[in-house]
Amino acid sequence: MERVTLRIPKQQIEEVEQLVDSGEFPNRSEAIRSAVREMVNDQQDGPNEQSGKRNWAKV
Description:
- By secondary structure, this protein is mainly α.
- Helix content is 51%, strand content 0%.
């Protein structure tokens, strides 16, 4: 696995910590990995506004 450093707003980190504290994820890293996997899977599936999928920002 490769290490990546990123900056995330404090409020979002607090929300991630709540997910960890509630037991949904074992730690922050796994929560963020899960979010990245979801984003990548959504992008591979292609745009589908009817299904309610997120529109991820492309930079």
